[in-house]
Amino acid sequence: MIGYKYRAINKYSIDALERNIVYFSKYTDFNDPFEFSTPFPDLCKMYTRAAAGVDRLYEEGKLTQADHQHLRQVCQSIVLSGGNGKDEIHKKIREKMSNTGVYSMSEVNDEILMWSHYADNHRGFCIGFHDLHKSMRITPTVMPINYIDEYTDLSNPQIVLDFYSEMFYKNRHLPERKWLKKYETLKKIYTRADDQKMAVAVLTDKYKKWEYEREFRLICEHSTGLKEHNPESIKTITFGLRTSDKDKEHIINICQNSQKSHIEFYYAEKAPDLFKLNIKALNM
After folding, report:
1. How confident is the model at residue 10 (pLDDT cuts 50, 70, 90)?
2. How many alpha carbons fall within 13 Å on the CB side of residue 145?
3. What is the DSSP annotation of 109-176?
4. In whole angstroms, what is the distance from residue 131 CA to residue 129 CA?
5. What pTM was estimated for this model as a whole?
6. Measuring CA to CA, how many Å separate 234 from each of 12, 101, 180, 247?
7. How confident is residue 84, by pLDDT bands cut at 50, 70 and 90?
8. Domains in the chain: how many in total?
9. Of the chain's two ends, which shows fewer C-beta atoms within 10 Å, N or C?
């Protein structure tokens, strides 16, 4: 997997290049305040909608009258309880998120706006990594960005209804002992899937207007800050339209003297008749 990191040329980016390190940020450091803001599930809303779904399952002949009444009561009890404890759960999730490290990368090295926003108005450089996540001591999780107009609806009860359908329709003829065993097994599977859905949404939901970035993320669940990587993971460095010859020479010298003589160098230039960058090999 190839990933690109646009950088301004400053003491931090030069130090990171020399020392073979990358910085995993906290989500609170992101420039978009809407990041990591997907609303958590509202259990009252979810189980009010689940109750309506239970009615539909009954109308479709997938639930007996007794099971329909039982599941209706389950949903109603959760709604009436107001989702007891949900605020405390959400607080713990936020605390866990604050310790999650994120390293953002792009699929492309020729995006004009990225060069403007993240590489000092085209005066910086762009590092091309190959499988960066595999070159670190602790392997981060790779997650593509989900560019959307509205947040993922985590109060959607579909996973609850799928569980009910699985147990009270598809498996209702099992002997009681086998049914109970199946119930506990599937409950764990569906709970894990629901937790994963929430994690993915919170970590990757991003407003659609940002999709030009072609972003994906490396996620370290329990740590932020500087992390070392194998220098072999850097395959290319591309210089911007306005990168000075002095800065180019400095970066090339750093690479040649820090286990990175294998790196291939490129430069960006304007396409003659288009709003487009052409990336060309730099003759050394």
Report:
1. very high
2. 23
3. S--HHHHHHHTTTTTSEEEEEESGGGGBSS-PEEEE-EEESS---TT--HHHHHHHHIIIIITTTS-H
4. 6
5. 0.86
6. 17, 21, 53, 18
7. low
8. 1
9. C
Q: Which two tokens stand for residue 228?
A: 């070392």
Instruction: Indicate the burial class of 233 (C-beta count within 10 angstroms; 0-12, 13-18, 19 or more).
Output: buried
pLDDT, tens digit, 9 for 90 and up, residues 201-225: 989 999 999 999 999 999 998 889 9
**264 occurs within a structural domain:** yes
120 assigned to some structural domain: yes
> Cα-flanking dihedrals φ and ψ of residue 217, to 5°?
-130, 145
Residue 262 domain-assigned?
A: yes
- Domain presence at residue 278: yes
Name the amino acid, one letter, at 230: N
DSSP state of 60: T
pLDDT the model gives residue 96: 74
